[in-house]
Structure formats: C-alpha cells, structure tokens
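notes to self, project folder thing:

trying the whole complex as one job this time. last attempt i did each chain seperately and stitching them together was a nightmare. three parts in total, labels are on each line so i dont mix them up again. if this works i'll redo the older ones the same way
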Amino acid sequence: MTTHGTHTSLGLDSRKMAFWAFIGSECLLFTSLISTYLVYKGRSVVGPYPHEILNIPFTSVSTFDLLMSSLMMVLALAAVQRGDMKWGKIWLFCTALLGLVFLGGQVIEFTEFVHKGLTLQTNLFGCTFFVLTGTHGAHVTVGVLWLLTLWVRALQGKLTSANAMTVEITGLYWHFVDVVWIVIFTVVYLIQ
Amino acid sequence: MRKRFWVLTAALAGSGCGGPFPQSALHPHSDFARASDVLFTDIFWWAAAVFVVVEALLVVALIRFRHREGRPAPTPTHGHTLMEIAWTLAPAVILVFVAVPTVRTIFATAGGAPADAVKVQVIGHQWWWEFKYPDLALTTANEMHVPVGKPVRVAITSADVIHSFWVPPLGGKRDAIPGQTNYIAFQADSEGDYSGQCAEFCGASHANMRLRVVVESDSEFGRWATVQLAGPAAPTPRTAAERGKAVFARSACIGCHTIQGVSPGVIGPNLTHVGGRTTIASGLFPNDSAHLARWIADAPSLKPGALMTRMQPPLTDADIAALVAYLQSLK
Amino acid sequence: MKSWLTTTDHKRIGLLYFFTAFAFFLIGGIEALVIRAQLAQPNGHLVTAETYNQLFTMHGTTMVFLALMPLSASFFNYIVPLQIGARDVAFPRLNAFSYWVFLLGGLFLNASWFVGPLFHAGVLNVAPDGGWFGYANLTERQFSPGPNIDFWLLGLQILGISSLAAGFNFIVTILNLRAPGMRMMRVPAFTWMTLVTQFLVITAFPVITVALAFLMFDRFFGTHFYVSQAGATPILWQHLFWLFGHPEVYILILPAMGIVSEVLPTFARKPLFGYTVVVYSGILIGFMGWGVWSHHMFSVGLGPIADSVFSATTMLIAVPTGVKIFNWIATLWGGDIRGTTALHFAVGFIAMFIIGGLSGVTHASPPADLQQTDTYYVVAHIHYVLFGGTIMGLFAGIYYWWPKMTGRLLSEALGKWHFWLQFVGMNLAFFPMHLIGLLGMPRRIYTYSPELGVSDLNLLSTIGAFLIALSILVFVVNIVRTRRRGQRAGNDPWGGATLEWSISSPPPVYNFSVIPTVANRLPRWKTEHHEPMRDPPGTPPAPIHVPGGSWWPMLAALGLPILALAPLTHTLWIAFVGVAVLLAGIYLWAFEPFDV
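result (full assembly):
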C-alpha cells in the first residue's frame, strides 16, 4: 500500500508492523470471547450440554484441515518469494480451498447442532459457543476472500514476487486464525 | 483554593451533630457508617496535607520564577535521581498509611453479623423497595423498621434490573443484582428517621426510588412488628372505607397488590398496612389523602414510567375517595 | 471542497478532526447546560425524566467518544508527524478512513435526537438513555425496548473501528517514521504519550467490542449473555466494560499529560525535568491501568479479598501519577516562566488534576467509596480529572499549537479571559459536587428533594456551568477574530525545542523540505552539550512527491453506518448494501495506485 522501499526507523516494513499490532488487538478480542466461554461454562440451566453434542472426531478432521492449510500458506509464500508464480498460484488456491472446506465443516456442524436442539438462544452454552466459533468462522471467511483475491490477481499476472510482502502479511493473518482455532479446539472441545 | 479546602473542612467538622441532612454520609448513625466516615476523614486529612504542599510548591514556583527582564537564561537541568526517588517514595509511604486501615475496614464491614441479628431481605423493584423479615414472616415496602443498638443484617437482591441500596447515615451502598444476594450489616446507634435512595441508575424513575429507615427502640420495633403481622384492619361497616374495600376487590388493584386476606398480587408493594406508612410512591409523597388520590388516579404522571398505569376505564372520583379512605384505614 | 473530502494530508485531517470534535464538544456542552438548568432547583421540571436520561447519557457518550478522544486525535494527526520529522503518517488513507468513520459514527449517534418519528415516537425520544456505561441488564430489550440503546451500541461499534484504525496507524508512524537520529529516548514527550495511548486503544477497544457484541446479540437475536434467569450474570458486562473503561480513562488523560509536558518546558525555557522518568511513568500508568478496573465495582459485592486487591492496585497507580506532577513542578522551578495563555492552561491542568487525583485516592478505599460511588462526589472527581485535567490540557495544546496549525496567534488577552472564566467556572461548577455527593445526592437523577439540603450547592454548581459556557464563547470569539485579525506567527513564536517549530506555519504540504537529522532530545535549543540544529530550508532542493487524495476511504467508511441501519430497522437487505459498499471501498482502495 505505502512506504515501499522507503526508510523506516526500525527497518521493518510498516504494513507488517501494523499487522502485528492488529494481531495483538485481535488477541484481546478472542481472549474476551474465550474468557466469557470459560466463565459461563457449566452455568447453562437447560441442555443440550457440551458433552452431549460436541463431535470431537469430526472437528479433529476440520482442525487437521486448517493446519494443512497453514502448511499450504507457507508453501505459497515460499513460492512467491522465489518468483515461482506457477506454484504460488497453486498453493494459494489450495490454502483457500482448505479454508473453504473448514467453513463447510462448520456449516455441517452448526446444522447438526440446530437439529439436535442447540441454537443461539437455547442456553448459555449455545450463546457462547456459536458467538465464539462464529466469530472465528467470520475471520476464516475474510481470509478465504483475501486469498482468492490474491489468487485472481496472480492469474491476471498482477501478483509477482515484488508483492511477496502482501503474501507474507496474508500468511500472518492466516496463521493467526489457525492458532486461534487450536486454542478454541482445545478449550471448547478437548477440555470439557 | 484555600477557601474550598475550608468549606469541606467545615462540613466535616459539623459531621458530629445531627441537623438538616437526612441522607448525609457525613452524619453517620451506625457502626458501619462510622467506620466509613472515620476512614474517609483519615484519608481526607492526608489528601489535604498533600494538596497544600503540592499546590504551594506550584504557586511558589510560578511567583518566584516568573519572567523578569534581564533574568539570565535558566540552567538546563534535565533531572535529579535522588529527587525522583524521594518523590516516588513519599506518596508510596503515605499510601501505606491509607492502605492499612482501608484493608482493616474492608474486612470489618464485609457484611458479617451474629446469628441473632435482625434479618431483613431487601428486593429492589423498578422503582420501589420490598422488605421481608424472614424470621418474622412479614413483608412491607419502602419503609424499613429496625431496632436501635441491635445488629441488623440486610440481604440485598433485585427482581428486575440492577439497583443499589443506600441509606448513607447507616452505611455504604450495596448493589441489588438479579440472581445474586449481597449482604451488609450495621448496628444503628441512635433512633430516628433516615432517608436513603437507589444509587444505581435503573431507568426512567431512578430518581424516584427512595426509601426510609425508621430506627426505633426495641419495644417500639416489637409493637410495629406485631401490627404488621396481624391481618388488615376490617373497615367499619357503612363507611367510605368499606365501599373502598369493595372497589379495591373489583378493580385491577388486586392483580398486583397484596392485602392479606383480600388479594394475592405480588407485582406491586404489599398494602396490608399501607395506612401506617408515612410516605407513598417509594418515599416520594406524604401519605395523605390528597396525594393518595392523585396517585391512584394517575400514577405515571407523578412517577414517570410507573408500572401502575391509569386504570381503564378510569375510576370515578367517588370510587377513588372510597379507596383512599380504605387504604388509610389499613394502619 | 473536493480536495478536503479526498484529503490524505495528516494536517488537513487534523484540522477536520479538530473542528468536528469541537462541534461535538459544543453539543455535549449544551446537553450539560440543560442538565444543570434542570438541577438548579429541587423538583426541577424543565425536562422530563425520559429526556433527562437521554441528556446525561448523550453528554457522557459525546464528551468521551466524540469530543475528548477526537480532540486529542486532532493533535496526534497534526503534531506527531511534525514532531518526529515525518512527511505524513504511515498510512495516509487509513487515516482519512479513521476520520470519516468518526464523523459518520458521531452523526449516527446524534441523529437519534431527531429521528423519533421514524420509530413511531416523538423527536427527542429515541436517543440513548442507558448511561454512557450502558449497564446490562437495564440495557436488555426487556427493560429498554425502544431503539435508544440500539443507537448507542451500534454507534459505539462504529466509533471503535475509527479508534482502532487510528491506533495501528499511529503506532507504526511513531515507531517507524522517525527522522534519522531520533532514537526512542529522543522522541518528544507528547509523541511518547500518544504512543502509549495508542497501545491502550488497540488493546482496550477489542474488549468493549466484545461486550457490545454480546449486548447486540442479546437485543437482536435473543441470546442470554447478561440474563440472570439463564444462568448468566449482568455483572459480566461490568467487568468487560470497565476492563475497557479504565484504560479508556488513561486514553483520555495521557495525551493531555503529553501536551503539558511540551508546554511547560517551552515557557519555562527549561528542558522537561526527568524526561526519562516522565516517559517511563507514562508507560507504567498504561500497564497498571489494566489492573484496576474493579475499583469501579466496589458496590457490586466482589468480596473483601478482591476489594482489597483492587484497592491496593488503585492506590499504587497514584505513585507514577504523582511522580509526573512533581516533575512538572520541577520543570517550572528555576525557569524563566512566561505567563502565556498556553502556560496558564498547563498550570491549570496541574492544579486541577491534583484535586482530581486526591479525590481519586479517597475512592480507592472501598469502605469510603461505598459512600461515594454513584453520587455527585464521583461526578466531581471525574470532572476534575477530565475537565480540569484533559480539557485544560487540550486548551493548553490549542493555544500552543494554533499558530503552527493556522499561521496566526490567538489573542492572548481574550485567552486570559477564557482561562480565568473557565478556571473560576469549573471550580464553581464542580467543587460543590463533592459536598452534594457526600450529603447524599446520587448521580443520574433528574430531580431531587429539597429535604436533602443540597439546593443551594446545586444552584452554585449551575452558575459555574454557565460561566464555563461563557468562557467557551470567549474562545469561539477568539478563533473567529484570529482568522482575520490574528497576528502572524512566523515559524516559531514561542522558541520551542522540537521539530515542528523549525518549519513554516502552517507547514507546507510536504512538511520538511529536507528531512532533518536529529542529534539530541531538544534539537532546536542550545544546551551545555550542543548547539541548536539548523532549520530546514524554506524551499525544497528537489521536487517532493506528494500523494494525491482518495475517495475510497470515505466510501468504505460509509458502508459502516449503512450496515448499522440494518439491525436498527430490522431490514436484512440493508445489511447487504452496507457490506457491498464497505467491500467496494476496500477493494477500490487496495488497488488504487497510491505512492507515498
């Protein structure tokens, strides 16, 4: 966006620094959401309760899928950095695709929960679960849109190794979203 | 600045005597209120001393070093480590002197009371107070009676939004929170009528959610409790009060108000002995026939947002007069 | 006109911030005057209970989010790049975006005064009425069914985005765009306090975003985040709100502390005493500000242990604050003090902030606080801190930097009138409130009984409020008069030490014809160690590329209030329009050729 190749006091790209600040801010957002989930854990007055409804094997697959997408992201960045736009395009697309698969999994999971009687309004578990995982899902959605935008730019030949910083920042975001999911998966699904 | 300092000092010095301030925290009348007041006075004098010293330094600096023609350029000093250490430590030491009595008072006023304390349950409603005495099995509203010189334990909760129970002469406030019970304990040390008020913003008529605490001798308290426990006075036959009872029984009143043996409503204040209270509408008006009549006719115009709406169809003036007579007979 | 709408120049955006925030400050002030008129006598009936509740809610919300924060932001924008020797902020278009989001968010909130008829209610009926602190569960749909609270929570969400965007921008600007040689410990104190403030913004605002999102879900989608019947507790709101709210207090006061740390040295002709200590205590206040939130909740019943802990942390935070005050006095000590209007306000800040700080210590002690919280005593405290403190500090900044921003000096004579009227007015308005509170008057009540014995004190307070209004009127006259008849300022009317005084007033669009190289903390002063630096030449040696304007930040910003209209009107398609506008703005912005 700005300050390409200009002097910076800390020798760090300004966009990248802004993005680290943004991630710091996002950490507080997710900390607030996760803390609320924990504070309200076990306080629902009616069911369904977490142990009756959470499908750990299914979500483990989703989690693995998201982890793999992070790997794809690493490969995409490496390819763009070395100027290999052919593989850059492929890996970017794969990252976005695995992101879409994760979102699909979330849609299936949410639908199943609603059928089993857990909605946003049912109980405190429903409120905190859907708002927490939904906020994360919204972040994944933004990431997928962003990745697809880069992919289209790459197809048009407008994304080259000169834009490696753009891909690096996208990667920062994507890895952050992935790490947040690991925390959510641990807190919500594994520690019941 | 000095002047302001003396205004507050004068007000504090006057805090020992009674006087025309029925809701003042500076005129404590219980152990709890006194503990807060002693602590506040303590901190106030520390603060006053710091205030005088620091503001004096500021004023002296301004006068002594004001610009004068021919004054040589100031020496560009950048700091002084010893001074920095000194003025970091000085406030820290003062704060220790404040913190120790603070923590001691926190634990002393944490709401504990002996088992034989008079127990009162306070329930905040938009916009009135309900008082229950579980040991005596009685319920009243807006005027709380407690015996002087006996420990009282107040359990505070809310039926709707967050309120805060505050009677400054008897102690600090505690929030009335739905789904939670908070406690305060106090022992009033002089008889009298003390006023209090909801202290947490709770909607349209937050300003109109007042209350009274009557601190009376043990025997008077006993008499009051006996009266409250008895059923409502039966109206004298063929009087306005008797007609009023009939109006009450056939009107919407019964949906919300309890009069023991007459109606079971629990949304509004219990009226079994409403005639014996000194005020109506949660401490807003004196309990006289003129105010009572206006209140029955159109409560929301006297108390914005009041849930007691105008009755449809409206009561006739004669009906209202009869109702007033009936309610006033319920001593 | 177009050049102002599309501007990405930090100086123009700074001026836009100033005039917009000042307009909101006047609106918030008028609300305060109506409040004081109502309370001038017991049983007042100038306005109804419902109107009064909207007035005090909007007064608080407006002053915090639409006046004080953006007035500080106007100085961040205008002065920070100049103080660090930069040509602009790191992200000029993001900066424009912050401004437009702020403006639209402010208009969105204030529109609530007039749009009642659209919601089958009268004018002056649907403005927010739950207090600036919006405590759940009063703000739940069950107890506040109208659109009032919707306006409030959606407006605050919009404004939060503005603050966050500005936060990222200024952190990067200060860390990354400093002139060569300007190490962190050479950064001017105001810029340092700006940096601390921005870190607080980016960490505190996400917390209130979540609190507001929960409230939004409760109100629009039937969740139970604050509903006790469902096993939840309304106290969660208070924890989240004050986790944000206390850092927010420092977001409001630290910039003013920074301004005072610039004004005092200039007019005492002496370097800031204990620069390092002032900077570190600012950072320390920023950190400690996160550990004191529950002192707003002593009456909630958190238990004696929690009360003791939060009491201790709160008392502790008084230490770095006191250290700053001593350093300011030591800066004056031994100086050659010129009594300009800016200095008057800076000294006024110190004198009043001491009172606010000391009354703060009295409610750091929970048993004392239980008699003070939610009474006029606390109203007195916050106004000594935020009016005597922040506003006085901001006016010090205005009188100090106005010549830099406009090229003309404000009248010193009118300035003194302004200061003394305001100083007397604020003490008359706010000092009696200490007593009013201790004598038993709660805050946020539209009427009070004459029996309380606080009627005379209230009348005094109202007279003070109108004196403050008069002082602001004098200031407005001063601005208007200066525009045409003000004395020309030249580069440096005060003999300042920092870089902004080395260039013309107002500065050229590129700020510095040559980026200066900084060798010490007071580049423009002669001290025992060094000679003053040479100012950059008036004309640049080579053409300087200046980025053009952009419409797209404004377009993206416009998407947010449109999006907010969807829940407000319960109309789904408006949400799609809002998202489309937002995305269109972002994409056009991202792919617009724009080089700094």
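what i see at first glance: Chain A has six helices and no strands.
need to look closer tmrw
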